[in-house]
Write a structure and sequence with these properties.
Elements: E1 20-24, E2 33-37, H1 42-54, H2 96-111, E3 127-131, E4 137-141, H3 144-148, H4 160-165
Antiparallel strand pairs: 1-2, 3-4
Organism: Sesamum radiatum (Black benniseed)
Protein name: Reverse transcriptase domain-containing protein
InterPro entries: DNA/RNA_pol_sf (IPR043502), RNA-dir_DNA_polymerase (IPR053134)
Length: 183
């Protein structure tokens, strides 16, 4: 499929249809900010902001805020094909600057209880640093080998035209971003 081009032949970029306003959900706390459309009526905008502020406790602003589900309620185990050979990837080496980024992220995840140290791993997958806009990096894990050992679940992908059509007739649309997109 060929990339869409503008009048000057430059690639078209998806942009918001309106300017988005930054809204501090907690007064004088620049970390707890969301974006909201600028073109809606002031009364509607204020009602949405008040609703978000009333429910501020349901948002996760740091990994520590993601409490998870009590293992007594449910525990997930990977369905790994026992005939597949275990893979322990060789350790990748990073420079001191990237090592520091990784250590800070690992410390945050350990403090939040999302990960723990282990002595004898059956599978070992490397850390990968992925550049983000603004010059920062996101720490990810290279699970390609582990993914190969797990049977595939075949779910049909939703059709984009059905998704777009399902929004017809609604006055407001809302999107929420998962915390950093990976926890």
């Amino acid at each position: 499929m060929e990339e869409a081009k503008g009048i000057e032949g430059e690639p078209l970029k998806v942009q918001p249809v309106e300017e988005l306003l930054n809204v501090e959900l907690v007064a004088r706390d620049s970390e707890k900010v969301t974006k909201i459309g600028s073109q809606m009526e002031n009364t509607v905008r204020e009602k949405i902001i008040q609703c978000l502020r009333r429910n501020i406790d349901i948002f996760a602003w740091t990994p520590k805020d993601l409490e998870g589900i009590n293992p007594n309620v449910i525990t997930h185990h990977l369905n790994i094909d026992p005939s597949v050979k275990l893979v322990i990837q060789k350790k990748r080496h990073f420079g001191p600057e990237k090592d520091k980024i990784i250590q800070v992220e690992v410390d945050k995840l350990m403090a939040a209880g999302h990960i723990q140290a282990i002595q004898f791993p059956e599978w070992l997958s490397n850390v990968v640093l992925v550049p983000k806009p603004g010059g920062k990096c996101r720490m990810c894990i290279d699970f390609r080998e582990l993914n190969k050992a797990c049977p595939k679940n075949f779910y049909p992908l939703p059709r984009i035209d059905q998704l777009v059509n399902s929004t017809f007739g609604f006055e407001l649309l809302s999107m929420m971003d998962a915390s950093q997109g990976y926890h």
